[in-house]
Design brief:
The complex is a heterodimer of chains A (224) and B (408).
Chain A (H helix, E strand, L loop, with lengths): L1 H18 L14 H30 L12 E2 L13 H5 L3 H21 L7 H27 L24 H30 L4 H10 L3
Helix pairs in contact in A: 2-5, 2-6, 4-5, 4-6
Chain B lengths: L19 H5 L12 E2 L5 E4 L4 E3 L4 E7 L10 E5 L2 E2 L5 E5 L2 E6 L11 E7 L4 E10 L6 E8 L4 E6 L11 E8 L6 E2 L2 E2 L6 E4 L8 E10 L2 E4 L3 E4 L4 E2 L4 E7 L7 E6 L10 E10 L6 E3 L7 E4 L7 E11 L17 E4 L19 H17 L8 H21 L4
Parallel strand pairs in B: 3-10, 11-20
Antiparallel strand pairs in B: 2-4, 4-8, 5-6, 5-9, 7-8, 9-10, 11-12, 12-16, 13-14, 13-17, 15-16, 17-18, 17-19, 21-22, 22-25, 23-24, 23-26, 26-27
Classes of the chains: A mainly alpha (224), B mainly beta (408).
């Protein structure tokens, strides 16, 4: 039937679109240029930082003391494969990053962090906790897409590998016992916090390098 | 100090080795707070690791240091949920093993488990174990189910009495057709509250189903009593849509209510009967009209003139496939408001003859200003006095305007 065909075509298009890597071109601010996207991405990192504070508070309370104590700083057991990408980097190295490398590091980090966050035990905890976690993951997904958008508008290719990694690597890096898993969860939240601090600095730096053409466009829009 | 990087003996390393050399070449100037790193091998092992215990039981736990660790048993101490445990409960079982005795444990402080930690003297964490202390689950009770428009089934239940087991409890709703087939498991939980599940399809009519709920936690399983029902016995529908309430001409004491039957009615062999409830705006007492029958309109009489009423309608499918039984009442429709007319003879109409005459309006404004004062902390200028002053001004200007003879 004719309606059957159009539904079939529609479904196929949806499937095709969903299988493409993160679609940055859907960001209509592309016309306003990279400057606008960078600002938006910066704003998003600040918003996420704010959201994280509440999420981390709730989750750490769920883990119980000493994890929720303000001065808690346990040793970090280094494992075979660094579970979470570290935001810590040499200062000179950080300064010398090209725009592409800077953005790619952010993109890769948040993609991995999102994947691990999704593994945080969604089965247990209160409904409130599951809710907050789901909301945060959605916002974090938005950040990944936003960074992808900035990269595309500046003409950089997205880093290789799945944009939204599947349900994490099974087995190997999984914590051998429940206490170590709690430590992993603690460090995941800490690393997320550190990355958001770092990204604010990254995007601030990128903001200053906005091409002049885009600046003119913004002035015109304000009627100067 | 226990947190310095150390050379590790590969034979004692449970995980793949990350050599110290790699750690030492880590960059020296991070732009974020530095992390303290410890050797790849676990410095100590606690036994039992992550045990599950009944409330009131006792436990002896041991912390055994890894052989290449420079500490001894007397350098260690224990904490439970961040609180240091008394040294009187410790015992050294060897040069590198310290035990602690915990008696009559209370239910876990958090469902993720109590944190029992073995520390070195300077406070460093050497190992930890999560204690799950609680009770086995109680039988779930009060299973009630309903089917929306004979298409699906939603059930809800309550956890057994007492409630608090201190352990995370998983609930599984199961169902099967009475004389055949295997058990099926419901998949969509929390659709109508925490303890609920929704079965969206593949349900047979005219056949009894057995339904029950299994509660399980680390200490055991409890199964509810089995509830037997036929989908057709628990049918409900969406509330009526497009509820309109309007005046009946100039009649002061009547309102006319009209609505549409729920769409599912057309598809099935059942009839619908309706119920209306209404209340005056500032009262919480609903009046119910029961004998509406299967009409989709009704006239409310004996109402107060000049009053705002809220009206709701609900629907009950009955005579499903010819049976005489009624189904389950639907939810009430969203409240619709309407007001009865007020006769013109009541003093105070639209002309401002004096501030005191228009009492209803003034009273409402007083309430409004009171609310504003409470919620808009800065607006202390607003008030009923201001309104009265404005009314006075209005009267004066009205007189002046009449004298001057301005056109409207």
């Amino acid at each position: 039937s004719p309606t059957g065909d159009s539904w079939g075509i529609f479904t196929f298009l949806c499937a095709a679109l969903c299988n493409l890597p993160a679609l940055p071109a859907l960001n209509c601010s592309e016309e306003l240029g990279a400057g606008q996207s960078i600002q938006q991405t910066y704003d998003l990192t600040r918003y996420l930082e704010h959201q994280l504070r509440t999420l981390a508070g709730t989750y750490l309370n769920y883990l119980g003391p000493p994890f929720n104590e303000p001065d808690f700083n346990p040793p970090r057991l280094v494992r075979a494969e660094p579970r979470v990408p570290s935001a810590t980097v040499d200062l000179d190295l950080w300064r010398g990053l090209t725009d592409n490398a800077r953005l790619a590091a952010n993109y890769r980090a948040y993609s991995r962090l999102l994947c691990y966050l999704r593994l945080l035990d969604g089965q247990v905890g209160t409904a409130e906790l599951r809710h907050r976690l789901a909301h945060f993951c959605a916002s974090l997904q938005g950040l990944v897409l936003s960074i992808g958008g900035v990269m595309s508008s500046l003409g950089y290719p997205l880093p290789a590998g799945p944009a939204a990694p599947p349900a994490g690597p099974p087995g190997a890096p999984a914590a051998p016992n429940d206490f170590l898993k709690k430590m992993d969860d603690f460090w995941l939240l800490k690393e997320l916090q550190t990355w958001l601090w770092r990204s604010a600095k990254d995007f601030n730096r990128l903001k200053k390098k906005v091409p002049p053409a885009v600046v003119t466009l913004r002035l015109e829009a304000r009627g100067f | 100090k226990s947190m310095q990087t150390r050379q590790t003996d590969p034979s004692h390393t449970p995980t793949a080795p990350t050599s110290s050399a790699q750690l030492n070449t880590k960059p020296s100037q991070p732009i974020s707070p530095p992390l303290s790193v410890s050797p790849a091998a676990d410095p100590a092992v606690i036994s039992p690791q992550d045990p599950t215990l009944l409330i009131g039981s006792s436990l002896v736990a041991t912390c055994t240091l890894s052989p290449d660790f420079p500490l001894k048993a007397e350098d260690l101490y224990w904490t439970l949920n961040g609180r240091r445990l008394p040294a009187a409960s410790y015992a050294a079982l060897g040069p590198s093993t310290l035990s602690v005795a915990l008696a009559r444990l209370n239910g876990s402080r958090q469902q993720s488990g109590d944190n029992l930690v073995c520390h070195s003297r300077d406070g460093g964490i050497l190992a930890g174990s999560c204690l799950y202390v609680g009770l086995p689950p109680e039988k779930p009770v009060n299973i009630t189910c309903w089917s929306k428009n004979m298409k699906d089934l939603t059930c809800k239940w309550a956890p057994g009495t007492e409630g608090e087991t201190f352990l995370h409890t998983n609930y599984t709703l199961k169902y099967k057709r009475r004389w055949y087939g295997q058990d099926n498991t419901c998949q969509e939980y929390h659709t109508a509250g925490t303890y609920s599940c929704h079965i969206p399809k593949d349900l047979a009519l005219f056949t009894p189903y057995e339904i029950w709920v299994e509660a399980s936690n680390r200490l055991g399983v409890a199964v509810s009593d089995v509830v037997m029902l036929d989908i057709l016995d628990v049918v409900t529908t969406d509330p009526p849509s497009d509820v309109h309430v309007s005046r009946v001409g100039d009649l002061e004491d009547q309102l006319s209510v009209r609505w549409s039957s729920p769409p599912a009615l057309k598809d099935f062999l059942f009839q619908a009967k309706y119920q209306i409830q209404y209340r005056v705006e500032d009262s919480s007492e609903w009046k119910v009209v029961d004998d509406v029958g299967n009409q989709t309109s009704c006239r409310l009489a004996g109402l107060r003139p000049g009053t705002v009423y809220f009206v709701q309608v609900r629907c009950n499918p009955f005579s499903i496939y010819g049976s005489k039984k009624a189904g389950i009442w639907s939810d009430w429709s969203n409240p619709t408001a309407a007001s009865t007319p007020r006769s013109e003879r009541v003093a105070g109409g639209c002309d401002p003859k004096g501030g005191e005459q228009n009492t209803t309006l003034r009273r409402e404004l007083k309430q409004f200003f009171g609310w504003v004062k409470k919620h808009a902390y800065g607006c202390s200028n607003l008030g009923i006095k201001l309104y009265d002053q404005w009314r006075v001004w209005l009267q004066k200007s009205h007189k002046t305007r009449n004298q001057v003879g301005k056109e409207p």
